[in-house]
Amino acid sequence: MAVQDLYMGLGALAYAVAKADGQLHSAESRAIRELLEAEPFGDVARCAFTLKEFHNDSPEEAYQFALRYFEANKRFLDRQRKFHFLRIAHTIADSHNDISDCERALLDRLKADLETL
């Protein structure tokens, strides 16, 4: 496995956060596109996001996919990258109105899960 595999997880995570409240909003789509374009392997993350969207995965399926990729590549998932990925997830959740209860629960869960990796 390689560091770019973390970004497969990031793309799936972006999808999970955006769909946590039930639908992908255009503001979230724009935020995701901008955020992922700024990443070193943003094209990989964007592909993962697009695949999750194409298959209409549930937020839980996408979240579990992300965690599997994070776990498998945790040697590349240092403290700084964990914080960065969490910040990206927060930015996506906050891009459309306020953070919903579903999004907040997912973000809290992500923070706890990242701490255990």
UniProtKB/TrEMBL annotation:
List, alphabetically, the Gene3D superfamilies matched. Answer: TerB-like (1.10.3680.10)
Name a Pfam family for this protein: TerB
Q: Which residues form the Co-chaperone DjlA N-terminal domain?
A: 10-111
Q: Which residues form a coiled coil?
A: none
What's the protein here called? Co-chaperone DjlA N-terminal domain-containing protein
